[in-house]
Each structure stands twice: as C-alpha cells, then as structure tokens.
Amino acid sequence: MATRRRYGKKAGATVKRAMHKYKLGQLKGGKGSHPKAKSRKQAIAIGLSEARKKGAKVPRKPGGSRKRTSKRSSR
Predict the structure, then answer these.
(1) Got the DSSP string for 6-28?
(2) From CA 54, how far away is CA 26, in angstroms rounded?
(3) What total number of domains does the chain contain?
(4) What is d(CA 56, CA 41) in angstroms, rounded to the nearest whole number?
(5) What domain range is 41 assigned to?
(6) Which of 22, 32, 36, 57 is the Cys-Cys partner for 8 at CB 3.0 to 4.6 Å?
(7) From the centroid of its chain, how far is CA 21?
(8) What does the pLDDT look like over 56-69, one tens digit per residue?
(9) Which residues, in sequence order, are bridge partners of residue 36?
C-alpha cells in the first residue's frame, strides 16, 4: 500500500537550502542579539516556515488548534 507524501518536493528543496546555509553559518535565525540559527532542528524549522510562506505542501504546525469550550450558564 502506497502512502501519501506529507511534504511536497518544493518544501524539501527549501529545507535543503536552509540546511546548506546553516552549515555555512549564513542562516539567519530571527531578531535579537543572536541572529544566526543555533541548531539543526532550528534550521529545519526555518526551512519549513519559509516553505509555508511560499505556499508549498507542508502540514500545519502541531498544537495550532485548540478545543473550544463553551461557557456554561449557571442556573
């Protein structure tokens, strides 16, 4: 049984480019006093984030949706 691809080819290419920049020490990791990405995981996250912005097939971030609780009326 064939399984469905979770990430598109474009997303893989974007992460690959981010990892390459990380290894060269050129990957920017955000604002503040530490502009460079510090870890491999952070480099992958930056690549996936860029892929999402470009519109590539990437699953949503985990924990994004939350159960809505309705307010109970006290009687």
Answers:
(1) SS-HHHHHHHHHHHHHHHHT--B
(2) 20
(3) 1
(4) 19
(5) 9-54
(6) 57
(7) 16
(8) 898 887 775 666 66
(9) 28
Q: What is the 3-state secondary structure (H, E, C) of 24-44?
A: HCCCECCCCCCCECCCHHHHH
Closest of 41, 64, 48 to residue 8, by C-alpha: 48
Question: CA-CA distances (angstroms) from residue 41 to 15, 54, 69, 72?
Answer: 11, 20, 34, 42
66/75 Cα distance (integer angstroms): 27
pLDDT, position 15: 93
- Please check whether residue 26 lies inside any domain of the structure: yes
* pLDDT at res. 69: 67
Q: Give the mean pLDDT of 37-59.
A: 90
Helix/strand/coil (H, E, C) string of 55-74?
A: CCCCCCCCCCCCCCCCCCCC
Residue 17: per-residue pLDDT: 94
Q: Is residue 50 part of a domain?
A: yes
| 59 token code pair | 């699953």
CA distance 44 to 49: 9
